[in-house]
Design a protein that fits this description.
The complex is a heterodimer.
Chain A (H helix, E strand, L loop, with lengths): L11 E10 L2 E11 L4 E5 L6 H8 L7 E6 L2 E3 L4 H6 L2 E4 L11 H8 L2 H4 L5 H11 L15 H14 L4 E5 L7 H16 L3 E6 L2 H7 L2 E6 L2 E7 L5 H9 L3 H4 L12 E10 L2 E9 L3 E5 L6 H8 L5 E7 L2 E2 L2 H7 E4 L3 H5 L6 H6 L7 E2 L2 E2 L1 H14 L16 H14 L4 E5 L7 H16 L4 E4 L3 H7 L2 E6 L2 E7 L5 H12 L8 H5 L3 H8 L3 H20 L6 H26 L7 H15 L6 H28 L4 H19 L4 E3 L2 H7 L2 E2 L2 E2 H19 L1 H11 L1 H6 L4 H27 L1 E2 L7 H11 L11 H20 L4 H28 L2
Parallel strand pairs in A: 3-8, 3-9, 6-7, 7-8, 13-20, 13-21, 16-19, 19-20
Antiparallel strand pairs in A: 1-2, 1-4, 4-5, 9-10, 11-12, 11-14, 14-15, 17-18, 21-22, 23-26, 24-25
Helix pairs in contact in A: 3-6, 15-16, 18-19, 22-33, 23-28, 23-31, 23-32, 23-33, 24-25, 24-26, 24-31, 24-32, 25-26, 25-31, 27-31, 28-29, 28-33, 29-31, 32-33, 33-34
Chain B lengths: L19 H8 L4 H20 L6 H26 L7 H14 L8 H26 L3 H20 L8 H8 L1 E2 L2 E2 H19 L1 H11 L1 H6 L4 H26 L12 H10 L11 H21 L4 H19 L2 H10 L8
Antiparallel strand pairs in B: 1-2
């Protein structure tokens, strides 16, 4: 329906949108108009294309074809950034939050500063914002430690704060309790009252009735109909959603006879997410585990497969079983196919055979002929559509990939098959085939346990359904009782009891200031400072000359060079990368300097030399960044290439030591005030400056955002590629500063110096507490890390310990520091 | 406005796309990496023949091959670690420790060589266990762990040697540099280890699962594989290979220094990358890494015999590495599409 027939211009209009992923068509010629001041519901099953469509509307997915208009103006290319500027805000189903940053920082990244400074303090404004959406988190809480509901509310708060023209909500109520849902609806009503157009994605018809004005149904990537909510009844909607009569999609049930033996019996099983759950499964049966996502049924299923720890009693064929034996006797199919089931660079054959290999081998060696025969037969039996069993598994459609996972499970010859959401993201045709296969498997004597959040699916597929809520079994439906209505009412009846997730305030309890410090970015710095002081005191007690002005001065000068290079390394590591080329770059810059900054150099020459050094440093960083972001290189591969190349250039320029740096220049660089070198003061100033920039400027927040969660950062409109490339360039420039100090210390062009700074700088960054996964770190910590490295080297000589001890302490420190930080982070993550 | 139910026919599951060259090569049992690096190596030897026949003279080859063999054995180990999405920076320490143990412990007495070799292997085993246990059990990044382990190993190296070199034993020299069928023993050692490791990884149950764990540890764990054990095995096996390489090196170099392993780290990573094994982990080719080690060694030899500045070798190596990675990782069709559309898209690292 063209926009011109409307009296009002749609706030958002999509026309003829098509999007394919490889062999899978996610959207086909989809059109959608959303009017200002109205709520437009988008309804459809899992995998119908709802989220992809909204990805297109919010600029995070680029369509293959189709037009996007905002307020009647056509937008040629809609990026996430442009969408934000045009007033489109989205609340993602999986919140686009940055786990390593605080709540306040997450809001700052998403909301322009201008919007927050409407009189009063920004923090008060943010606290107010969180209250209006019903969030109980504190601004300084790290998002990493928040529960799903609180993350979702933070996501809502960020979107609401933008006062958008178009607000897209993608299944926002899934993790929310009743009160929170009510507050969310209140926000939606406020938004529409302001004239905002709301797109509300859901698969719950009740919510559509409550809040929406119009409804569009998607199925298999196409629009199946659009209507005013008031003009359509539930049956008609349901027909559009599922597309065919229920009975047709499911195979006939074969309920087991009453004397069918019990295969699996579970009594009082408890573990993380489920408590005191009991059930049994008989031969020939398909048993469903129902419940809203996140009520312990998936964790329970994993415990049945022996994949997570549990206490209680499991018997298989009448014998108690646990641990490895349980893993070997069962086959488990995860819900998240790409992340948790497929070996994505491997073929169909390799994926299918991996669990069954021992049975296909003789004396530990895989028999290729038997392997091919077994996989071939299974692939044929399950009707996997693939060119050959040697095809890359990622070239298959979702449904066929799922059949490969199923083939893997069946080839292993399990006593019981356990499947978590087996039809998620699977097209309708393949879904029916998968149901048939499961029925055949059950009939062949291997019972099946299925977790599904789709009550219709459970009704059609299962002989018996066990309902979970809050980790407990709250009901069991057998035979004719297994209907969508019964399942839903048991689930819903239990949902009213669902405890609302409390804010972290309740979890941390007393002493939270100290705990927060311990979890914060500065804990490593405090520890390092204490270690430095203790080592200093110990060394001084042994040898009082240790604190002689000359020694202090020389240690500070040496550590300054390392500190600058390490700060450069910190910038790159903050993005989740690593720069191996910084050491050789420092060496090359010194070599370059040795051609110019010699005795008798004019002011012009000196300036020229500095300019050349800066250009080389920046160019090296740029090349690294471009290779990593545009060349598909990993950061190790790219910077290793530059490592070797830069080292080669250095050796080419200075095969032997030569070119003495003018003492006038070195004196200038090594000048001190008292016994403190000016260079050290500069290093401290730069570290503090960078630290502040990291916390307070858009650059710093963007840098941490990119390292913390790249996809979220992109969806938030952070220019991801630019942030990465800039990080490598900044690292090069900081290395230039370090190289100036290094040059003054060495005093001569020497291609072999500098190289060792690569590993030292990584050591300093790790000691400083940065996470090599990106997103977390501190320049102060890095400075202290560099200080500790230099101090250890120096102190061992005063303690009359040999070179061997220098290495020992370095190795010991880095392993202990990394182990402590890693464990601390894992614990804080696990605690929530 | 009434509901308009559209075409009810469901989209049939799209038929699978053929595996293309990847699939052909897989069924032909050779990886793309192996084919590429083999081609490049043959090309390099042809260029050597034309540009500088001296670089292929008997004496030149006899000089190059033992070092190529050492690098090959190290690259073999590095490949295993990279297949588990790690990187092993403890190569220098492990190699150097093996070198000083088999030179300093016997101190010229061939009779004490055997216990020294066993001691070196034990040290290698311990180093591998340290790396492997810390990475697999504590979940620490491999790059940090192996950096720390390397420093600890050097502490031992300096403790044993005091930093000074000692001449190798006669027995070790004979073992490493003697020739069989015209090829130095070291080459035979490397060939045997390559064949053994390659066979284990590609054909054994443990090796096939090893690759699956490297590709997707989460999925492997949920499929019932013992993820931590496979990860540990990578580091232990690799460390033992570095140790063997160090022992060989101690026989090839008359008076090996205490820092003999330093020069081996970067070429070993370069060889793995050139061999087409992704630094993100997963499938890899031991044979391709070994061929890449030969490629790098001959490249050095060519530069050396050409008499140009040896530093040129570094630059050529860097260019070869860049070209190698670009061939494997750049999504060329996407690049062409991007150039046509003139709009940058994020690269997949």
């Amino acid at each position: 329906m063209p926009a011109t027939t409307r009296t009002t211009t749609p706030a958002l209009s999509l026309a003829g949108v098509t999007k394919t992923y490889g062999a899978v068509r996610a959207l086909t010629d989809v059109s959608l108009d959303v009017l200002p001041g109205r709520v437009h519901a988008l309804l459809g099953e899992n995998g119908a294309g709802k989220s992809t469509l909204m990805g297109v509307a919010s600029g995070s997915v680029q369509p293959d074809h189709g037009d996007i208009s905002v307020d009647g103006e056509q937008v040629p290319v809609l990026t996430a950034d442009a969408a934000t500027r045009l007033g489109i805000a989205i609340v993602h189903q999986h919140p686009a939050v940055l786990p390593d940053m605080t709540v306040a920082e997450n809001i700052r990244v998403a909301v322009p500063a201008g919007r927050m400074s409407t009189g009063g303090s920004t923090r008060a404004w943010m606290a107010d914002l969180l209250r209006t959406v019903g969030s109980t988190v504190r601004l300084h809480d790290r998002v990493d430690g928040l529960g799903v509901a609180q993350k979702q509310l933070l996501e809502v708060a960020k979107a609401v704060a933008l006062e958008p023209k178009v607000l897209i909500l993608d299944e926002p109520t899934a993790p929310l309790g009743a009160d929170q849902t009510e507050m969310l609806f209140e926000q939606v009503r406020k938004a529409t009252a302001r004239g905002c157009a709301v797109v509300y994605i859901t698969h719950r018809m009740a919510e559509v009735r409550r809040i929406a004005d119009e409804v569009t149904v998607l199925r298999d990537g196409s629009v199946r109909g659009t209507s005013r909510v008031a003009d359509i009844d539930d049956d008609a909607l349901l027909r559009m959603i599922i597309g065919r009569e229920l009975a047709a999609a499911f195979p006939a049930k074969h309920p087991p006879s009453d004397d069918a033996p019990e295969v699996l019996d579970v009594t009082g099983l408890s573990g993380e997410g489920f408590h005191d759950a009991s059930m049994s499964v008989r031969r020939g049966e398909i048993v469903g585990l129902a419940g809203i996502v996140g009520n312990g049924q998936s964790e329970f299923l994993r415990a049945l497969a022996g994949l997570v720890r549990s206490t209680g009693r499991i018997t298989l064929d009448g014998r108690p079983i646990a641990g490895r034996a349980l893993v070997d006797a069962t086959a488990y199919m995860p819900a998240d196919r790409h992340a948790e089931a497929l070996m994505t660079t491997m073929s169909v054959r390799e994926n299918a055979a991996v669990s069954a290999l021992p049975a296909l081998a003789t004396a530990g060696v895989v028999d290729r002929v038997r392997e091919r025969a077994a996989v071939d037969e299974e692939v044929r039996r399950l009707a996997v559509k693939t060119a050959s069993i040697d095809t890359d598994v990622m070239a298959l459609s979702g449904g066929n990939q799922q059949k490969v996972v199923l083939a893997r499970a069946l080839l292993a010859g399990p006593k019981i098959l356990l499947a978590d959401e087996p039809t998620q993201g699977v097209d309708v045709g393949a879904r029916a085939e998968i149901y048939q296969i499961m029925r055949d498997v059950a009939a062949s004597g291997v019972p099946v346990v299925v977790v599904s959040s789709d009550a219709k699916e459970l009704e059609g597929l299962c002989d018996r359904v066990v309902v979970f809520s809050r980790g407990h079994v709250v009901g069991e439906l057998d035979g004719d009782e297994v209907t969508e209505e019964n399942i839903t009412s048991t689930v819903v009846g239990a949902v009213t009891l669902r405890r609302q997730e409390s804010g972290p305030a309740a979890e941390s309890g007393g002493g939270s200031r100290l705990r927060r410090l311990a979890k914060g970015d500065y804990a490593p710095s405090v520890v390092l400072a204490l270690v430095i002081l203790a080592l200093g005191a110990y060394t001084f007690a042994h040898n009082t000359r240790y604190l002689a002005p000359f020694n202090v001065s020389s240690v500070l000068a040496l550590l300054s060079a390392l500190a600058f290079i390490s700060m450069g390394q910190t910038v790159v590591i903050m993005t989740g990368g690593i720069d191996l080329s910084l050491g050789p770059l420092a060496g090359l810059l010194v070599v370059i300097a040795s051609f110019f900054l010699v005795d008798g150099a004019t002011a012009g020459t000196i300036v020229l030399a500095l300019v050349i050094m800066i250009v080389v440093a920046a160019a090296s960083g740029l090349l690294n960044g471009v290779l990593v972001r545009y060349g598909g290189f990993t950061s190790v591969a790219a910077t290793l290439t530059l490592y070797i190349g830069l080292q080669g250039v250095s050796l080419l320029l200075r095969p032997f030591q030569a070119g003495f740096i003018s003492t006038g220049i070195t004196d200038l660089i090594t000048a001190t005030t008292g016994s403190v070198p000016l260079a050290f003061i500069a290093a401290v100033v730069v570290a503090v400056g960078l630290e502040l920039a990291l916390r307070l400027t858009p650059w710093g927040r963007g840098l941490r955002a990119v390292g913390s969660h790249e996809d979220s950062a992109r969806r938030l409109g952070v220019k991801v590629n630019r942030a990465h490339v800039l990080a490598y360039v900044v690292a090069g420039l900081l290395t230039f500063l370090g190289a100036l100090l290094l040059m003054a210390q060495i005093g001569v062009g020497d291609a072999t110096q500098g190289v060792s700074y690569t590993l030292s700088s990584i050591t300093a960054v790790v000691l400083g507490g940065a996470s090599l996964l990106g997103g977390r770190g501190s320049f102060i910590g890095t400075l202290l890390g560099a200080a500790l490295i230099q101090q250890v080297l120096n102190a061992t000589t005063f303690l009359d310990l040999g070179q061997s001890w220098q290495y020992f302490f370095q190795g010991f420190l880095i392993l202990v520091a990394a182990a402590v930080y890693t464990q601390a982070r894992l614990r804080s993550r696990r605690a929530t | 406005m009434p509901a308009t139910a559209a075409d009810p026919s469901p989209i049939a599951g799209p038929s699978a796309v053929t595996g293309g060259i990847g699939g052909l090569l897989r069924s032909g049992r050779a990886s793309r990496g192996l084919v590429t690096i083999l081609g490049a190596t043959i090309l390099l030897f042809l260029v050597s023949l034309v540009a500088q026949p001296d670089s292929l003279s008997r004496s030149s080859l006899q000089g190059m091959l033992p070092f190529a063999a050492v690098l090959a054995v190290i690259a073999l180990g590095q490949t295993l670690v990279v297949q588990q999405a790690g990187i092993d920076l403890s190569v220098p320490g492990t190699v150097s420790l093996a070198v000083v143990l088999v030179t300093h412990v016997p101190d010229g007495d061939s009779g004490k060589l055997l216990p020294a070799v066993l001691l070196a292997l034990l040290a290698g085993l311990l180093a591998g266990l340290l790396n492997g246990l810390v990475v697999s059990r504590l979940g620490m990044p491999a790059i940090v762990t192996s950096l720390g382990t390397n420093a600890l190993l050097y502490a031992v190296v300096l403790g044993v040697s005091g930093g000074s070199p000692t001449s190798t034993t006669d027995a070790m020299r004979t073992i490493a540099t003697g020739a069989l069928l015209g090829l130095p023993h070291a080459v035979w050692f490397a060939a045997l280890l390559t064949a053994g490791t390659g066979f284990l990884v590609k054909r054994s149950v443990a090796g096939r699962r090893f690759e699956a764990v490297g590709d997707n540890p989460v999925a492997a764990g949920l499929a019932g594989l013992r993820v931590k054990r496979h990860q540990l095995a990578a580091y232990v096996w690799a460390s033992l290979l570095y140790t063997v390489a160090g022992i060989l090196l101690a026989g090839i170099v008359t008076t090996p220094s205490a820092f003999q392993g330093d020069s081996q780290l970067l070429p070993s990573v370069a060889a793995v990358v050139l061999g087409g094994t992704s630094l993100l982990g997963g499938k890899g080719s031991a044979v391709a890494s070994v061929v890449a080690a030969l490629f790098l060694s001959q490249l050095n030899q060519l530069v050396l015999t050409l008499g140009v500045n040896p530093a040129t070798g570094n630059i050529v190596q860097a260019l070869a590495l860049a070209a190698g990675v670009a061939i494997y990782t750049i999504d060329w069709p996407a690049v062409r599409a991007r150039l046509r559309r003139g709009r940058p898209r994020s690269a997949v690292a």
